[in-house]
């Protein structure tokens, strides 16, 4: 649908490519013009960190706040105990309450980088749906809420239908998820005046359920807005790299690796990703996207710098770019100063990864090898896997065969090479291809 919004928030959403569908564009647009709109996105606590796949909707919440409205980050302390079956082929593993709380704490650190939390009218608030879900009376819930849901209609939603069509099991526990998510919207409207739920297009059915339930139970007009499923130009799901998920917590993925993820964006995706993952003006995004040849690489650096600065801060972005430029230019990053500091630290006892990060910073992926590991020599293939430069030994062997494996900027040809304690007496830089590097140090 082509819609020309009047509100600043919806205008930004359309201009930057955030809109997939909406339950009522015009009514939502009018509400956004009239005053502050509280809106939420829900996040189940299935991992210790959010990843790049979540970042599009985090940016939606950021723009919501920047345009004068109130973001609500709803943590699924209750719904995580059930598990969202949407478009999954199997049931999610059930987590303990302690693990769920731990995951929520890790995810919360990411939101604080993008949103301003507080008590003001447009300050973000973080809630946990366990607050109202954990103490539900089952029979009362079935009578008061369950009666508004048609099983026939629930079975027709694509997220459920696709699972059943493949004759894959769908437990009764999972089947309840869409009712609980709909109930979240009802409770958020009652308690906080929330009138808009946003989420990925895969959540459309769940969002519509919440809109319908709230209308039926308390006769309130509320809306749903979804973002498109984001894939790269070659069809891959956004948020995955060769080595797995691109995590947003720096304890799980260094700022340098995060920067490199964006620097490695394909040419065709640069303009689109600039609009979605940065706050660069749309006209400048379009100009950078039109660059050709080697010039497009500078656009990728801008994308990497801006995306990294939003999450990790400008200093981390500058450090990552400096490390990358030094490595790309062929200059060894194993300078005498680092070598001397490593020797001094090792002289005071075993060298740990935390000590190494203090010496070189978090800008470059690092790995500490213990003396026990090198008694008989450690296979260099193993190091490529342990540092994350290769996904497996098979992947590492392919690097060697293609001439993409290097040690201290020298091409490695012997995939059977083992490194001794003497070889690792000084820090060693391993390189995969032209853009990915890691530091290996003897502990």
Automatic annotation (TrEMBL):
EC number annotated for this UniProt entry: 6.1.1.1
Alphabetized GO MF terms: tyrosine-tRNA ligase activity
InterPro entries reported in the protein's UniProt record: aa-tRNA-synth_Ic, Rossmann-like_a/b/a_fold, S4_RNA-bd_sf, Tyr-tRNA-ligase, Tyr-tRNA-ligase_bac-type, Tyr-tRNA-ligase_bac_1
Pfam families: tRNA-synt_1b
Residues annotated to bind L-tyrosine: 40, 177, 181
First-listed, main subcellular location of the protein, grouped into a coarse class: cytoplasm
Motif ('KMSKS' region): 237-241
Subcellular localization(s) per the UniProt record: Cytoplasm
Catalysed reactions listed for this entry: tRNA(Tyr) + L-tyrosine + ATP = L-tyrosyl-tRNA(Tyr) + AMP + diphosphate + H(+)
Subunit-level organization: Homodimer.
UniProt similarity note: Belongs to the class-I aminoacyl-tRNA synthetase family. TyrS type 1 subfamily.
Name of the protein: Tyrosine--tRNA ligase
Gene behind the chain: tyrS
């Amino acid at each position: 649908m082509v819609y020309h919004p009047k509100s600043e928030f919806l205008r930004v959403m359309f201009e930057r490519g955030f809109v997939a569908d909406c339950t009522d564009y015009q009514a939502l647009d009018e509400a956004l013009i009239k005053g502050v709109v509280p809106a939420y996105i829900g996040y189940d606590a299935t991992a210790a960190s959010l990843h790049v796949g979540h970042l599009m909707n985090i940016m939606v919440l950021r723009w919501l706040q920047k345009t004068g409205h109130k973001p609500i980050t709803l943590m699924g302390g209750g719904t995580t105990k059930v598990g969202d079956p949407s478009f999954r082929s199997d049931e999610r593993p059930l987590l303990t309450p302690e693990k769920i709380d731990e995951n929520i704490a890790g995810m919360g650190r990411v939101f604080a980088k993008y949103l301003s939390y507080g008590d003001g009218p447009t300050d973000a608030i973080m809630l946990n749906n366990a607050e109202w879900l954990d103490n539900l009376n089952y029979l009362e819930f079935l009578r008061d809420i369950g009666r508004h849901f048609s099983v026939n209609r629930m079975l027709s939603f694509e997220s459920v239908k696709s699972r059943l069509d493949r004759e894959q099991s769908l437990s009764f526990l999972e089947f309840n998820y869409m009712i609980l998510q709909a109930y979240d919207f009802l409770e958020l409207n009652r308690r906080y005046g929330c009138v808009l739920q946003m989420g990925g297009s895969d959540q459309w059915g769940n969002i519509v359920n919440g809109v319908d339930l709230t209308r039926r139970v308390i006769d309130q007009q509320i809306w749903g807005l979804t973002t498109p499923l984001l894939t790269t130009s070659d069809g891959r799901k956004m948020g995955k790299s060769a080595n797995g998920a691109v995590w947003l917590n720096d304890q799980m993925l260094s700022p340098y690796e995060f920067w490199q993820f964006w620097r490695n964006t394909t040419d065709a995706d640069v303009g689109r990703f600039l609009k979605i993952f940065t706050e660069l003006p749309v006209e400048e995004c379009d100009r950078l996207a039109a660059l050709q040849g080697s010039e497009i690489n500078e656009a990728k650096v801008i994308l990497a710098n801006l995306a990294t600065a939003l999450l990790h801060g400008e200093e981390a972005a500058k450090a990552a770019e400096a490390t990358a430029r030094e490595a790309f230019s062929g200059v060894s990053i194993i300078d005498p100063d680092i070598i001397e500091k490593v020797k001094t630290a090792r002289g005071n006892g075993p060298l740990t990864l935390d000590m190494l990060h203090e010496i070189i910073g978090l800008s470059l992926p690092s790995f500490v090898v213990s003396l026990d590991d090198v008694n008989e020599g450690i296979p260099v293939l193993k190091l490529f896997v342990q540092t994350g430069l290769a996904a497996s030994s098979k992947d590492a062997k392919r690097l060697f065969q293609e001439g993409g494996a290097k040690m201290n900027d020298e091409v490695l040809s012997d995939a059977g090479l083992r490194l001794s304690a003497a070889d690792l007496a000084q820090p060693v830089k391993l390189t995969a291809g032209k853009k990915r590097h890691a530091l290996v140090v003897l502990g």
